Amino acid sequence: MKFRKLLAHFILTLLIASVSLYSCKDFNDVSFESDSGEADFSTVAAVGNSLTAGFQSSALFETAQRYSYPSLVAGQMESVQEFEQPLISNPGIGGRLELDGSIPPADPANSPTPTEEEGQPLNADLDRPYNNLGIPNAILADFLGQDLPGAPYSDRRQSNPFFDIVLRDLGNTQAEQLQVLEPTFVMFWLGNNDILGYVTSGGTRPYLPPQEFQSLYQAAIQAIVQTEADAVLYNIPDVTSIPYVFFLRAQLEQQGAITYDETTRMYQLATAEGNFPIYIETASGPRVMRQNDFLLLSAAGYFARIQAGEAPPPVTPGDAIPDSLVLDGPVTSPPTGESELARANGVVQEYNNAIASAASDHGYALVDIHAAYGQIIEDGGVSIGEETMRPVPGELFSFDGVHPSNQGHGIIANLTIEAINNAYDAGLTDIDLSSIPRGIPTGN
Amino acid sequence: MRKLIATIGLVFVCSASAYSSGFSIYEASVRANGMLGAFSAYADHISTIYYNPAGLSGLDGIRVSAGGTIIAPRTTFRGPFASSSAYPGSDKRYEMDEQNFFVPNFYASYEIEDGLTAGIGVYAPFGLGTRWDANWVGRTEAIETSIETIFVQPTIGYQLPDFGIGDVKIGAGLVIAAYGNVKLSRAVEDFAVEDDIFSLDGELDKPGIGYNVGLLYEPTDMVRLGFTYRSKVETEFSGDADFGDLPTALFPSGAGGGTTLELPANWVAAVNVQATENLSLEADYVWWGWSSYDELVIEFDETIPAFGSDRLANERGYDNSWQIRVGGEYTDAWTQGLSLRAGIAFDRSPLPTEHMDPTLPDADRWLFSGGVSYELTDYLAVDASYIFIRSEERINRESVNGFHGVYNTHANLPSLGVTMKF
C-alpha cells in the first residue's frame, strides 16, 4: 500500500514535470552581447548605394546580399536581433553577369554574359524599413531626397526601380526610413556614384562639384546626428583601383593585343602589319594613348569588334577610340595637369576631405577605403586561406568590375570592424575570409 | 509536498549538465519504454528479443506483440554567434521543421519445447530526421538529413540445464538490416544559382547482417542479472545525387552516389531486483561503440570535378558513449491486471562539440517515462507509455565548420501497443 502511494506520487510528479518542461522550451542562459565598447549595436542600419546593398555582377540577388558588408558586420554584432535586407531571389534584378554552368569556370572561353531572367523580391511585405537601406545607383543627394539641377529627386526615384524595391511606401527617402528605424548604429557610405558616372563614362557625364558634395554631406550627417546613433563612415576609393578602369588595358596587354612602347612611351596596337600607335579621343581632341590613359571595361566590346575586323583599328586620329570608352590621364612630357583622371582624383580627394572632417567632427568611425584599396592594388591581392585573391573580376571583384565579390565584401566588413573597434573601443571579432563561399553567378 | 517534488524535479532537469547517443533508437517496445529501456534483465515481455535474447526462453505458448512509438523531437537553434565568422550572424531563433516519426515494433515467439523458444522481432534501432528551412542561415551545413532503418531479427532462447546455481538462460539472434533509406541535402553557395541545393537519396543496397547474444542469470528468485551484446551492422546505401542548378561542368547531372554507415555495436549490463511481490526495479548500463562513426563518406560513381574526387568525406569524430537506465514496474496496482511503470535515464552524447552541426545537434539528455499495461483478457493486454526527453542546452563555439550557436532540443514519445498470448 505504501509503495503504491509512492509510485502514484512519483508518476504524478513526473507528469507535472513533463508538462512544465514542455513549456520551458529553450534554456535562456546564453548572452549574445558582443563587446560593443562605447557603441550600442542593438539596432543597426546601413545607408548607401549598390556597394551597401550587396549588388554584384550587375545585379542585386539574394546570395550576394547575404554576404553584403553591412550584413557581415551586423553578424559580428551578436546583439543584433534582425538585420533585414530587401532580398531578391536568384538571378536577381539588373541582368546578372553569369558564367556558363556547362563549361568549367576556370576555362578562358567561359566569359560572363548577362542573363535575361529576373528574380523576385522575397520579403517585400516586411512591415518596417529594412536595416539595409542601400539602393543601387543612389547618389548622395538621394539620401535626403534633395533636388539637383535638371534632376529632381522625384525623377531620379522614378527612373530607378531599386528605390521602390528598397523603400517601398514606408517613407520617401532613405533618411526618412532611417528615422523610423531609430537605429543605435549606422553604417553610411554614399558619394561613390557622384563621381563614378564621370569615370565610367570616360568623363562625358558630370560629377557633383566638391563644394556641393561638402554641403550635401554635412546635411546628410546632420540627419544621422538627429538619430543619436553612433556611426561609421566610408570614403571613396581611387578611381583607378576598380577593375572597370584598370583591368581591360592590363588584360589586352597580357593577351598581346596592345603593347606599351618604352621608348616612345605610347601604347601600340598589335596588328598583322606590325605595331601602330593607338589614338584616343579626348575633350581636347584626339591624341596617342599614353601610360596614364585607361581603357574602360565598357571598351571590351569595341576591342572585340576590332579584333574581329568589324571596326577600323584606332591607329589614326580619325578612328580614335571614342572618348566615352577611355579615361584619359595626364600627359607627363610635356606635362599637362588637365585630364579626366587628374580631375577625378582631385574630386575624390576633396570628397574624402569632407568625409574625414565629418567623421572627426562627430567622433564617428571612418573606414579609409581609399587607402585600403590602394594597398591591395600595391600588394597585388589579399591572401585568403591558401590562395591569393587579386583585385580583379571573379576574385575580389564581381564580374562587373565595380562591385566587390563576397570576399571583397568580407574585406570591407573587416575594415569596418577594425574602424569601429578603434573608434568605440569595441571588441568585435574579425571574419574568417576563407570560410565565405565564393557565390559565383552561374547559369545553365 | 507533491508540488515541492515537482519543483525539485524541474530545477534538477533544467540545470542538468548533460551528455547522448547519436541516432540510435532504444524505444523498441511499448512496455520497455515505460521503464525507459531498463529491461535487459527483467525480460518478461517478448520484446526481450531486442533487449536480451536470453529472455526468450521461458516465454510459453505463442506470443505476439505489436506497437508503435511516435517520436516528436523539437529543436531550435539560436545564433549564429559572431565567432561563426562567415555566417551572417544574429541572435535569431530558428526552429527545426516539426516532424513526427512513427517507429513500429513487432515481435512473435513460439515455445518449441520446455526451455526452448524461437522468435522474430521487427524494429527500428537506428533513425534520424532533421529538416531545416531551405533558406535558413545554416543552409550550407544542413537542410534535410534523414536515416531510416527497419531491422528483422530471428532469435532463439534456451534455458541451460539446472547446475544448482540458479537459472541460466542464453539466447542469440541474427540481426538483419532489411530496409534502409538515407537522405541528405544542403546548399552549396560557391555558385549563385537559383537552386543551389545538393541532395542525395539512397536506399539500402543489400541487407546488412549482424548478431546479438544474451545471457540471463537468476542467482535467487529476487535477483536477475542480464548481459547483452549486439554487434555492429554495416549498411551500404546507394542512390542518386542531385546538384540542382549548380554548374554541370563541375557537378555532373545524373551522378550516382552512396554511403556506408557502420551502425555501432553495443552491450548492456543489467540488474533487476524483485523488491516486493509486485514491484521490480532495474538498472541498466548501456555502452555504445559510436567511435566506429568517425567519418561520413559519400562515394560517387564518377569523379565530381567540383570536389576533384569521387568521394566527399565529412569527419564525424564520434566517441563511444553510454547510458544509465533505471526503471521499475508495479504489477496489479489497484486492480488485477494493471501494471504501472516509470523510468529515468541519462544518455551521454557521443558527439564532440567540434563536430556538432545541424544535421544532428545531439546533446546529453535526460529521459523520463511512465507506462501502463492492462490485461483486458487472459490473452490480450494493452500497453501504453510516454517518454519525455530533455536535451541539455548545447552551446557550440568550436565547430570545425565554423557554424556556432546554441541548440535546444526536447522530445515527446508517446507509444501504444498490444500484447497477445495464446
UniProtKB/TrEMBL annotation, chain A:
Signal sequence extent: 1-25
Top-rank taxon, per record: Bacteria
Keywords: Hydrolase, Signal
Alphabetized Pfam families for the sequence: Lipase_GDSL
Region: Disordered, residue numbers: 98-124
GO MF term list: hydrolase activity, acting on ester bonds
UniProt-recorded name of the protein: GDSL-like Lipase/Acylhydrolase
UniProtKB/TrEMBL annotation, chain B:
Record GO terms (molecular function): long-chain fatty acid transporting porin activity
Leader sequence segment: 1-18
InterPro entries assigned: OMPP1/FadL/TodX (IPR005017)
Major localization class: membrane
Key words, A-Z: Cell outer membrane, Membrane, Signal, Transmembrane, Transmembrane beta strand
Subcellular location: Cell outer membrane
Gene3D superfamilies: Outer membrane protein transport protein (OMPP1/FadL/TodX) (2.40.160.60)
One cellular component (GO) term of this entry: cell outer membrane
Topology with respect to the bilayer: Multi-pass membrane protein
Family named by the database record: Belongs to the OmpP1/FadL family.
Name recorded for this polypeptide: Long-chain fatty acid transport protein
Species: Fodinibius roseus
Lineage of origin: Bacteria, Pseudomonadati, Balneolota, Balneolia, Balneolales
